[in-house]
Amino acid sequence: MLRFAYAATSHVGLVRENNEDSGFAGPYLQLVADGVGGAAAGEVASATTAYVTSARAATRPDEDLRRLLASAVHESYTQLSAGVEQDPERDGMATTLTAVLTHDNRFAMAHIGDSRAYLMRDGRLTQLTSDHTFVQALIEEGRLSPEEIRSHPYRSVVLKSVNSEQPPEPDVFFLDLEEGDRLLLCSDGLSDLVPEARIAELLSQADRDAAVSALVEAALEEGGRDNVTCLVADVEDGPVLCGDGRLLGAMQDPYLVVDPGAVRA
Fold first, then answer.
1. Range of the domain at 79
2. Number of domains the chain contains
């Protein structure tokens, strides 16, 4: 049975006072959720969305992978809306979500926002996700080059997210993964600061823990102006394992989840 062998960490960075990133790293689910910077209660949005997605993956493992991920994203929106009703100061809270789920040797991804997923296969790095950002839209329209992103004044503007105001529209699709593949899921605290060539170089280290540490350190060396979360997961074949995993960042605080009891089988 294909599953993930993984290493993961989340760092507050060198500028922010709190960590609005959340993550879950387990043998069957890898995810990163990044509370949208500048919005109220970003850590509540990311922790709630990460919790709902990981809980759904655990309680409904036999459900169609794409349907499960899509329903988890919409359930997260419902929870965020309820959270704003409970506390109007949370109005505007939002988060990205990039999640990869596997079951019965199939893999699916849900993605919304500007966190990223990369695939390293045979030494080659490929970006699996497309940023839902203003500058990415300009690139796709031919009005901006990738080299101009770093200096663009609106490079941080996210066009799509999981929020409390409107039903989300994530990209949900199957992935063609095989034994020996390596995934990197990360918040933009890495991808905004560290060039892709450097990411590929650091990710190519055989030791997953060393790769994760090197990636985070590279983001800090570039200024660490945002929270940075990195998950490195190798696709391997092995016996079925317990679906528990590591909680990262804001997800480690259960009080940040709007209503854990609302997520039921």
1. 2-259
2. 1
φ/ψ (deg, to 5) at 193: -110, -30
CATH number at residue 80: 3.60.40.10
Taking the CB of residue 104, how many other CB atoms lie within 10 A of it? Answer: 9
What amino acid is encoded at 75 in this protein? E
User: Residues 68, 137: contact at Cβ < 8 Å?
Assistant: no
The pTM (predicted TM-score) of the whole model is 0.94
Rounded Cα gap, residues 97 and 204, in angstroms: 25
3-state secondary structure of 157: coil
Q: What are the structure tokens assigned to 28, written together? A: 């069957």
Q: Point out the residues of the chain with pLDDT beneath 70.
A: 37-38, 135, 137, 139-156, 264-265
pLDDT digits (tens, 9 = 90+) for 167-211: 999 999 999 999 999 999 999 999 999 999 999 999 999 999 999
Cβ proximity of 74 and 51 under 8 Å: no
Show the beta-strand stretches assigned E in the chain. Answer: 2-11, 21-25, 29-34, 94-95, 97-103, 106-112, 116-121, 124-127, 162-163, 171-175, 182-186, 228-237, 246-249
Helices (H), the chain: 42-59, 65-86, 134-140, 188-191, 196-203, 208-221
Question: Using the 8-state DSSP alphabet, how is residue 146 labeled?
Answer: G
Nearest to 258 by CA among 72, 22, 48, 36: 48
Nearest to 54 by CA among 27, 34, 29, 71: 29
User: In sequence order, what are the beta bridge partners of 35?
Assistant: 95
Determine the 3-state secondary structure of 234 from DSSP: strand
Evaluate whether residue 123 is within a structural domain: yes
Q: Tell me the one-letter amino acid at 194.
A: V
